[in-house]
Please model this.
Amino acid sequence: MQPLIIYNTLTRKKEEFTPMNPPFVGLYVCGPTVYSDVHLGNCRTFISFDMIYRYLLHLGYKVRYVRNITDAGHLEGDRDEGDDKFAKKAKLEQLEPMEIVQKYTLGFHDVLREFNTLPPSIEPTATGHISEQIEMIKEILANGLAYEKNGTVYFDVEKYSKEFNYGQLTNRKLEELLEGTRELGGQDEKHGRLDFALWIKAKPETLMRWNSPWGWGFPGWHIECSAMSRKYLGDTFDIHGGGMDLQATHHTNEIAQSQACYHKAPVKYWLHTNMLTVNGTRMSKSAGNGFLPQELFTGNHKLLERGYAPMVVRFFMMQTHYRSTLDFSNEALQASEKGFERLMESYKTLLSLQASDKSDENIKDLQNKCYEAMNDDFNTSILIAHLFDAVRIINSANDKKLNLTQSDIDLLKKIYNDFVFDVLGLKQDDVGNSKLDTALNKVMDFVLDMRQKAKTGKDFKLSDEIRDKLLAAGIQIKDGKEGSTWKI
RNA sequence: GGUUCUGUGGCCGAGAGGCUAGGCUCAGCUCUGCAAAAGCUGCUACACCGGUUCGAAUCCGGUCGGAACCUCCA
Model:
């Protein structure tokens, strides 16, 4: 089998993926900050990495997938001032900060379950790893790459840069980075303009606070990922992922913190997923153009014509490569919906396909092409193109326009199970009550039989009426050579 | 302003120096009592201007759009 090739942000090249300790793979993805509802853009990242996780599992790797929950230490600005996001929200909603955390963590899990994502192996929280973070800060201080000022600890970027390449992940030089920042004010505690906080002194009104060697305070945003990835995956691990927006600041600082501690690059492959846009502009919390998943499912949003099922949205996302921006529109979503339904319908057709003693299509070749697509940096959009080739083959075989042997039919089933369900993580949306389903099937058999009798007796008025009434009820009749079938 | 990325047919989106994905839409055909479904066929595109090359949508230079990051954000 051909090797898996992935695009590494660190080198800006596609590279062959070779885990450090096969068959084990360490995967860390930056999770959400749970102070508000996740919007669809956030979901795209987690759905993309779910696909990547699923494919690694499919290839037989034993993956430890760590995705954190940020529930502390996230300030309004990255200038290490302003309110803690949780405290601010807590004040607004008159709740304890941990009530905020609980509420939005549960909401996050609910949403991801709708999108059929697999849970990570470990989902650590920042508040649960305060001592690990303090230990790490102590190490950085001991190595002389951080300094304490009035109870706050800062990372010394310029000093670090003498030994390491700070702008490595974004391919930028320190001087360029410095140009982009403002001058320090007279009251600033920082030595350098790029310095960032590792530990922040609590103000009298700060609710979420912990004791530390530097007094009461709370951790900076970036240190949690360094501390938790190290704890569960080791000093150096295989894959670190996140949204592209985290690349320049958060991930750059993560690398710096880890290297300042143990003088080794923490991550072998950095993967970044691209943004979801609305009318060409990035969906983000601050821009206020975000959709909540629930609004999308129900269609209850001024930009939406109607609702779209979670699996339609997932399929829509899978049609685009994870490193491309994806623009959101009703038209695009409706196109995906039809394509998705056709893909799922053909699976049902496949399950009842009659075998021939010869095959007119090379299914093995199709399977290889599916692997080739995925092995080329998880190219789901090419994969889906090949899957639609399978759709065409299945439907043609069903129309008796081409032949398939039983082993080819079985191989097609395997392709569907492996790629559509396991890797892309799609599933049939009609999760009904089986008792009702059985009853409905019997009723429909009866109705279709009635209609067939009407047709045989040339009572087209009645047969058309049955068809139209059923359609009005949301059931579509499909007349084939071998009789009629139906779908909701 | 700096750093990147990007500009593909009616729409969405892959690909990437010659073999010119795929989905949706539209038109025609087959099938059908008529439809629908399904299949087949057609619409053959790569912002613009130069250059390299036997050959460029794909490489290089420029022009003009668009976006991201540099400030919290997946």
The longest helix of chain A spans residues 434-456. The longest strand of chain A covers residues 237-243. DSSP finds 16 helices and 15 strands in chain A. The two ends of chain A are 40 Å apart (CA to CA).
